[in-house]
Amino acid sequence: MNNTTPTPEKKDFIREIVAEDNRTGRYGGRVVTRFPPEPNGFLHIGHAKSISLNFGVAEENGGVCHLRFDDTNPETEDMSYVESIQRDIRWLGFDWGEHLYFASDYFEQFYAFAVRLIEAGRAYVDSLSEEEIRVYRGTVTEPGRNSPYRERSVEENLELFRRMRAGEFPDGAHVLRAKIDMASPNMKMRDPLLYRIRHASHYRRGDEWCIYPMYDFAHPLEDAIENVTHSLCTLEFENNRAVYDWLLDSLFDEPRPHQYEFARLALDYTVMSKRKLLQLVNEGYVSGWDDPRMFTISGLRRRGVTPEAIRTFVERVGVAKVNSRVETVLLEHTIRDDLNYRARRVMAVLDPLKVVISNYPAGAEEWLDADYWPRDIPREGTRKVPFGRTIYIEREDFAEEPPRGFKRLSPGQEVRLRHSYVIKCEEVIRDELGRVLELRCTYDPTTLGARPRGRKVKGAIHWVSAEHALPAEVRLYDRLFARANPDDTSEGKTFKDYLNPNSLITLDRAFVEPSIAADPTDTRYQFERQGYFIQDAVDSRPEALVFNRIIGLRDTWTKRAEPAPQAGASRPVDPAGMVVEGTRSEARDRARAENPPLQAAYERYRTEFGLEEQDADLLSGDLTTAAFFDAALAAHNNPKSLANWINNVLQGEIKDATIASLPFGGAEFGKLVALVDAKTISHNQGKQVLAEMLANGGDPETIVAAKGMKQISDADALAPIIDQIMADNAGKVSAYRNGKIGLLGFFMGQVMRQTGGKANPQLVKTLLEEKLSA
RNA sequence: UGGGGGAUCGUAUAAUUGGCAGUACGGGUGACUCUGGAUCACUUAGUCGGGGUUCGAAUCCCUGUCCCCCAGCCA
Questions:
Q1: C-alpha to C-alpha distance for A629 and A252, rounded to whole angstroms
Q2: Other C-beta atoms lying within 10 Å of the C-beta of residue A314
Q3: Chain B: bases < 7 Å from a protein Cβ
Q4: HEC sequence for A683-732
Q5: Strand B contacted by A713 CB (< 7 A)
Q6: d(C-alpha A360, C-alpha A364), whole Å
């Protein structure tokens, strides 16, 4: 393990794009991102993902990330949200420096851009009613219709727009719209609204404006004004990108900002939409935005989760384009992992059971040394813990009839009191109902800091001194919802129907060891064997302590005692497939039906050349492809081989381009395939030549000659190369011989790489198999 | 139904861009233990289905299926 190869950092697709832009110098090495919240709600853990991405990408590339409040809707926004959002981002540990911006500061610029658009004939004032606009927009399957106001003159539009700003019209009388395409299959492109009239006070601009820009107009401009390079947003804005590009291409030159979309974070057993969170708050299902059961940043903070844990979590989730729901256990794991190293251990009894140590002198007490940290945590520190004749232990740490494997206290049995003595249960005292009231135990004075002689004590339990312990209220939190996806309302219910009635359990007779009185009130603890706790920042007072459980410890004991149902869900079963006409194959069928020569070509390919149905279909779908194929055939009379190369290799290489736009013709292509078929060059080399032809055109034979390409089909030439590779990878050779035959691909790859793809693969394979099994 | 996205162990996410399907969480088993925590070891389990190209396919081609988004004067 001497070599610490700097493993190339694994990048998500966004970071890949940024790295590529840096490589090509698209923005001259600049990287500017932005986090653009609307100040109309509190930040939640989903935002933390976006914040971490935006600030992270900027920082990793020596760039900056702007905090920009996207405050273009006066009706829902508020200064208190601006403050809470800034507080939350800072708390998470991110810094926007001087780059704090407000969309509402750009209103004058937005107006000027709108005027420019009107002057360019790319925007118009529409005077249709809200309802009419909806009708004119059409549906996803029917195109929209142009508004009768669409062709107003530039002068009229300018005048109307000026008067809109001047406040001459009531709400809804007019809107400004982009003039794009009412028939666009992308609904967002059907003349999106740019401005609406709203006589409302804005929390920052007051009554200065009565027209407000819409998202599709404001957002790209904000990005452009701030010289943002990479505008990262969530998947639901994919369709809006067309408007984004249209607008910026109308108004700016490259390099201008570009938008990329990633999947928002969804977490099991909770909801993430601001609207639903607000509903929970307003309707009293939770105590507020900062209720510790909420996955808002403020809720998590009050709960006691650290910013580091949240950041680790969102980093572990990753960034991709798949809609996904992350399991809560991942979050819980990162929280525990974080707290394990930072939370000092103390003892608290949540559900007390009185224990009297009958052989311990009445009135006596000892202050025992107890480490704050277990041996595996490299931190120092101890405190004194009082011990006396009467203590409390956890009720569930005693069992009159212990189940198999029980390692705690039961009648006649011994248990270790953590940091203290070994005690033995001698007697159980009950009330008249038979409920266990208290235990009488004896202690072994020789067991303080020492193992008992001649016997083994299996378990250790926590406890507190009855005389010294501090009473406390303890709040146990559980998932807010009883269902993994509360948003799934397929059963005709609402998300509120899935609230978990036991999401908060309050224990008001708990006891905590006295040492905590000396600690700062925001100290995070592990109550040994229970979980991680912190004083509630809102409700806890020195004389009336209140603790929040941040997260419980992993518990492999109760899990074993009552095995939970397997978490895995069964995979969805595909219903019997319905026959739907595939659009592309349908287009080819139609082309042949309308075009007799194509149909004839198809027949010829099938009967004369004996091509498979699929190959013939693909080649006779349009005239250019058929002509290309025929031209290739003239140069190389091997229909099957040509069909393979056109349909599989060529189509894969040209991506979005078409055969018509190729810098070479069918004849050249035919010659290329001929070279491969003649085994002059290998299949791989053939693809290399094709790439060259695609890039610069040219004749395959010339390229092959110029590059000195020739397939190596000589075993004597290949053997030393193979031997060398096997010598260099002795470990893999033995792994192969031990049955890991998948490594053959690895060796093939090495040989092909070494030979620049020249080696005859069939031959290499034979040779390799021979040598490897030798 | 039009358009835009997407599909890899139970979950999330990788795969040198055609060459060893890896990592983490979860689950299981065991070791250790004055926390039934932590740690360690082992283990479990996957390329949406069907065809094709290739020596070799998660990756390329064809085809089918399923999921998400879009018809706010919200963002």
A1: 44
A2: 24
A3: 1-8, 10-21, 24-29, 34-39, 49, 51-57, 60-75
A4: HHHHHHHHHHHHHHCCCHHHHHHHHCCCCECCHHHHHHHHHHHHHHCHHH
A5: no
A6: 8
Report the pLDDT value the prediction gives residue A561, as an integer from 0 to 100: 61
> Which chain A residues in 225-264 sit with Cβ < 7 A of strand B?
235-240, 263
pLDDT in tens, A678-719: 888 888 888 889 988 888 888 888 988 888 888 888 888 888
A512-541 pLDDT tens trace: 999 999 999 999 999 999 999 999 999 999
Contact by Cβ (8 Å): A520, A506: no
How does DSSP assign A250-265, residue by residue?
HH-PSS--EEEEEPPE
Structure tokens at A502: 């036991």
| CA to C1' distance (Å), from A493 to B54 | 52
> Tokens for A181?
């395409």
Q: Closest nt to A234 (CA→C1')?
A: B69
User: Is it the case that residue A158 has pLDDT exceeding 50?
Assistant: yes
Q: Which of A26, A137, A145, A264 is catalytic?
A: A264
**CA A423, chain centre distance (Å):** 51
Backbone angles phi, psi at A19, to 5 degrees: -60, -40
Poorest-confidence range of A76-90, A96-110, A441-455?
Answer: A441-455
CA gap A123, A136 in Å, rounded: 17
**Which single residue is written with the structure tokens 């390409």?**
A709
Chain A 593-612 contacts with nucleic strand B (CB below 7 A): none
Spanning CA of A16 to C1' of B6, the rounded length in angstroms is: 19
A576 touches strand B (CB under 7 A): no
Is A274 assigned a catalytic role?
A: yes
What are the structure tokens assigned to A142, written together?
Answer: 């029917």
Residue with nearest Cα to nucleotide B24 C1'? A316
In the residue annotation, A264 being an active-site residue is answered as yes
Residue-level pLDDT at A565: 35
Of all protein residues, which has its CA closest to the C1' atom of B27?
A: A566
Q: What percent of chain A has pLDDT over 90?
A: 71
**Residue A743: which pLDDT band, with cuts at 50, 70 and 90?**
confident
Chain segment A319-339, per-residue pLDDT in tens: 999 999 999 999 999 999 999
Longest dimension (CA), chain A: 110
Q: What rounded mean pLDDT belongs to chain A?
A: 91
Average pLDDT of A298-320? 97
State mean pLDDT over A269-277. 94
Q: Give Cα separations from A187 to A141, A193, A245, A462 (angstroms).
A: 10, 12, 15, 64
Three-point CA angle A627, A629, A635, nearest 5°? 110
Complex-level ipTM:
0.96
Q: Please state whether strand B lies within 7 Å of residue A571 at its CB atom.
A: yes
